[in-house]
Amino acid sequence: MNWERVQVYLEVLACPLCKGELLYVEKQELKGFVCKRCALLYPILDDIPNMLPEEAIPFRDESSEGP
Question: In terms of residue numbers, what domain contains 44?
Fold first, then answer.
């Protein structure tokens, strides 16, 4: 997915559970939008964000953890 499209999605999408801000993440073969508050990743499938909470993937951001 190109960066311009990601930027548009970030402007209009919010977490469907808490209505919080989302971040775009690409890890290995997984890409999607993450809600840090809910610790869920909403995957992008065929360039379409899947924003269904029941299909979200639990997400733990190792880069923000301390030693």
Answer: 3-60
Convert the pLDDT of each residue in 17-37 to its tens digit. Answer: 999 999 999 988 889 999 999
- Examine residue 67 and state whether it is found in any structural domain, yes or no: no
The larger pLDDT score, comparing residue 29 to residue 6, is at 6
At residue 49's C-alpha, the angle toward residues 48 and 53, to 5°, is 140
Which CATH number goes with the domain that contains 37?
2.20.25.10
What pTM was estimated for this model as a whole? Answer: 0.86
Do 6 and 33 form a contact (C-beta atoms < 8 A)?
no
- Kindly state whether residue 17 falls inside one of the protein's structural domains: yes
